[in-house]
Automatic annotation (TrEMBL):
One protein family per Pfam: TetR_N
Coiled-coil stretches: none
Top-level taxonomy: Bacteria, Bacillati, Actinomycetota, Actinomycetes, Pseudonocardiales
DNA-binding region per UniProt: 30-49
UniProt-recorded name of the protein: AcrR family transcriptional regulator
Keyword Plastid: no
Keyword DNA-binding: yes
Keywords assigned: DNA-binding, Transcription, Transcription regulation
Length: 186
């Protein structure tokens, strides 16, 4: 017996679900909200994605691979921590205020995602430590403290965007944060 064809585009539904969790968070988003947003009935939603927690995990993965991928790209592509942080903060100002999307960052606004936030901070710290080790930053630069500063700045920018801050206001935050960055070693 051939299985019945699904009556919806899985990727489109996953994007709608991702945006719903992004907008409201895991706890505040009910299955009824998800079915109302997507137009997919609960049995079909469960059959395609599993329970709410599994669906949230898949939505988070999708967010990381699409809307939130700019952070990982900057850390991988930029030659120094300073360049990566500058790019991340400037792109965050754009990404967190794009009109047709929920504001801010799904990862930063979801209490359940502490481990992912800590992994991001560790990635910042590793990039900074590399710069200290190679002499791009002064030997006395505190990689842990700088990584916490970057993480707090990005998280603050996400919160400000969710509260209605404009793109230009977030760019001002980015410029101010970068002014506190240690001078590179000549």
């Amino acid at each position: 017996m051939v299985g019945r064809k699904r009556g919806f585009d899985r990727d489109d539904v996953l994007d709608q679900v991702t945006r719903a969790f992004w907008r409201n968070g895991f706890q505040a988003t009910s299955v009824a909200d998800l079915t109302g947003t997507t137009g997919v009935n609960p049995p079909s939603l469960y059959a395609a994605f599993g329970d709410k927690r599994t669906l949230f995990a898949e939505a988070v993965s999708r967010y990381q691979a699409t809307y939130g991928a700019f952070t990982k790209r900057a850390l991988e592509e930029e030659p120094t921590a300073r360049h990566a942080v500058e790019r991340i903060l400037n792109e965050a100002a754009i990404e967190y205020t794009t009109p047709e999307r929920p504001k801010g960052c799904l990862i930063l606004s979801s209490p359940e995602l502490h481990d992912l936030r800590d992994q991001a901070r560790q990635a910042f710290e590793a990039k900074i430590r590399h710069d200290v080790a190679t002499g791009a930053l002064p030997a006395g630069a505190d990689a842990h403290r700088l990584a916490l500063f970057v993480a707090a700045t990005v998280r603050g920018m996400s919160s400000l965007a969710r509260d209605g801050a404009t793109r230009e206001e977030l760019r001002d935050v980015a410029r101010t944060a970068l002014s506190a960055w240690p001078a590179p070693v000549p």
